[in-house]
Design brief:
single chain, 2 domains, five-stranded mixed β-barrel, 8 helices, 8 strands, elongated, binds zinc ion
């Protein structure tokens, strides 16, 4: 007889399979990221449907088949209705799910990633910076925590003037060092980073959500944050 495994999980993505099946990516509390097949789940009568859809949190039960794990039971814990009703929130939930799927490979229990994910989904009501908050904390958990306090090159404490971010080196470089290396041949790509964005990144990694949720972030800073996040994500994905 097959062993039935039970755990909690966030349904991150789903794709249709065959006539009535769906293949889900679920981030589970006890087994990390899993691919699980929902057999006949697209049929109206399926009992699994309520607790197995994108962005919901459910108690799940599955068995390990030859090729796939197969869902045998679901109990919905939170459907995050408010996410589905709001375009910005669903976009944020999608970005979080997507980046987690890309950056976390193995089927391995990881309590820190689980609690970061639970915490982030719980904050989706207020999500201007949430995707980035999740992303930078995930970088940190995966061993890519950037240096945000000292210049990577001279080691001096960063002053809030012209600063640059290097994805390759994982941190910030001061203007004096950038001027100096310009004379030499430097292959490292540097992107200008707004000093306020450095502060926001620090708040992310300090998990200072009370302050972050009240921050008013201007357009320029938002663009700068998005550029840095994208660039660092590409670097991490290439080197992972
Ligand atoms: Zn420096």
């Amino acid at each position: 007889m097959a062993i039935h495994y039970r755990t909690k999980g966030f349904f991150l993505t789903e794709v249709a399979r065959g006539e009535s099946d769906k293949l889900f990516v679920v981030y589970t509390k006890d087994f990390g990221k899993l691919k699980i097949l929902g057999k006949a789940i697209r049929k109206i009568k399926s009992k699994l449907r309520a607790g197995a859809r994108e962005f919901c949190l459910s108690e799940i039960e599955f068995i390990q088949g030859k090729t796939y794990k197969t869902l045998t039971d679901t109990v919905l814990i939170d459907s995050f209705q408010s996410i589905r009703k709001d375009l910005t929130k669903s976009k944020t939930a999608f970005q979080i799910s997507d980046v987690l799927d890309k950056l976390v490979k193995g089927e391995e229990k990881d309590e820190k990633i689980w609690s970061l994910l639970s915490e982030t989904f719980g904050k989706l009501s207020d999500c201007q910076l949430l995707y980035h908050y999740f992303l930078w904390n995930l970088f940190s958990l995966l061993g890519y925590q950037p240096e945000l306090y000292k210049c990577l090159s001279c080691g001096k404490e960063l002053k809030p003037f012209q600063l640059y971010f290097s994805s390759e080196e994982g941190g910030v470089v001061c203007n004096i060092c950038v001027q100096e290396t310009k004379k030499e041949d430097s292959s490292a790509q540097l992107i200008e980073i707004k000093p306020d964005v450095v502060k926001i990144l620090r708040l992310f990694l300090q998990k200072d959500w009370p302050v972050l949720s009240k921050l008013k972030v201007g357009e320029e800073d938002k663009e700068s944050l998005e550029t840095i996040s994208e660039d660092y994500l590409s670097f991490v994905l290439e080197n992972f």
